[in-house]
Amino acid sequence: MPASDAMTTLMRLMALTDSAFPVGTFSFSNGLETAADTGLVHDAATLEAFVRDVAVQAATTDGVAALHAWRGRRDERFDEIVAADHQAILCKLNAEARLMSCRMGKKLAELHTHIAADATVARWLDEIGAGRTPGTYPAAQGIVFAACGIGERELFCSHQYGVVNTVLNAALRCVRVSHYDTQRILFRLSGETQALYDEAAGMDYDDMHAFAPQTDILASLHEKGTKRLFMN
Hints:
Elements: H1 3-17, H2 32-37, H3 44-59, H4 62-74, H5 78-90, H6 95-115, H7 119-129, H8 137-147, H9 152-174, H10 179-190, H11 193-201, H12 213-223
């Protein structure tokens, strides 16, 4: 790849991974708000353990779906994109997680249509509008990243960074931690991304697993909670 093309791709990767990219990640905490309220997460050590669990669960569910959607867009197999979209939503046991994924997925796809024309993204939005596919965020990431010429490894890194950073940003408002703590956790967890990619890259839909009962219990408590800063 010529240097100019590589730099363009890197700039697009940075833009799509930026926490300021307007898809609504700031509205969600991935369950941290309730974990903090119940005392499960109360300092840097418990926060790191919580974020690691969230990252692993995301890698083996949404991460797998994103990779399959990316490959579907690369191979021009729209049925594979739809299959990945449906599998992603099946891994969301609580209503708030489904809401989060679908809102962010549709928003990402809509944003991309305003930035660059892509027939696959437009077709996927039509399928969402017709109610034939849910429109999850990992599926949207797979389509959009492939359309931008960004590789699947970079997609997976961006996906993991987004998951981890969403929780860590929320932690600054929910938990007694500092920016030093959150950046230290991000630095440590980034060293585990390669192993998670190696696992997720070879997984098929039957291999996806989302067994995290504690997270699901926290989500159910949040749905009926009266104290909230985040949508989930």
